Amino acid sequence: MMTPTAKAKNNLLRSRNRLIGAALAGCSVFALNACISDGDENSKAPSTPSSPEKSVAPSMTSDPDAAAKKAILTTYDGMWAAQMKAYKDRRTSAKGTDLPKFAALNALSTLELDLRQMKDSGSRVVGTLGHAPKVTGIKSSGTPRATVVDCLDLSAWKETDSSGKVIPLPSNQPTRYQATATVEQWKTGWIVTEYTPNGERSC
After folding, report:
1. Residue 184 to residue 75: CA distance in whole angstroms
2. 182: Cβ contacts below 8 Å, ≥ 6 apart
């Protein structure tokens, strides 16, 4: 006959076996190994909490010169708009136009010479000249300076002579050709100092 202590130990052992059996019975046939594996992993898990994963910083995709490029192109486009208006108004010089706000030095001289030649020949612009400028380089040492490369499009350009007849383009003239400009940052802001159209270089 078992003593009360022996009976209690047997009851405790049977209770523990029933709990283990119930736990295993809760696993499906296909997940039995997973349940056992999880139990092993939990028993081996460290007592200290794992450190949180470090967040990965997003890659730098923004252009550090974006603000400067925007200001440079704003100046270049301002010169361009003033130039086109002066052509259509048949100006003989930059006086009375917005050109001096955006162009200076050789660039302004080049544009004024073009205006005088058009006026002297009696020609008049009746079409539009397309363009697509891009900033290709910025130099920050010394006087900040940038290079703008533009692709001029003559497909909608029309120029008439003094009688109103459309002047045809030279046979060797590309419909699209390149122009370059130098834009410098002065105390008053960015300004175009060099402007060179290259009618023989297509783009």
Report:
1. 10
2. 107, 145, 146, 147, 148, 192, 193, 194, 195
Amino acid identity of residue 130, one-letter, is: G
Structure tokens at 98: 């917005």
CA distance 149 to 131: 10
Packing angle, helices 105-121 and 66-88, rounded to 10: 20
Summary mean pLDDT of the chain:
78
Amino acid 162: pLDDT: 87
Q: What is the largest CA-CA distance in the chain?
A: 135
Task: Round to whole Å and give the CA distance between 50 and 48.
Answer: 6
Over range 138-152, report the average pLDDT. 95
Each residue's pLDDT tens digit, 84-117: 999 988 888 888 999 999 999 999 999 999 999 9
